[in-house]
Specification:
The protein has about 55 residues and is an alpha+beta fold. The protein contains two helices and two strands. The chain has helices spanning about 15-25, 40-45, and strands spanning about 5-10, 30-35. The chain has a two-stranded parallel ribbon. β1 (about 5-10), α1 (about 15-25) and β2 (about 30-35) form a beta-alpha-beta unit. The chain is flat, with a radius of gyration of 11 Å. The relative contact order is 0.28.
Length: about 55
Amino acid sequence: MNSGAVLVVEDESLILLDIEHSLREAGFEVIAVYKGDNAIATFDRNPVVSQPS
């Protein structure tokens, strides 16, 4: 079951990996980005929008 998509931005790589892993296990599609500078560009390339059904 897919619970939706999440863009995760974190400056600490170990925390980013932990959050990404936990969200994937919970059924989310995860786009993980290291450092805030990359977040907007990543979102522009992957504008995943999940609408409730």
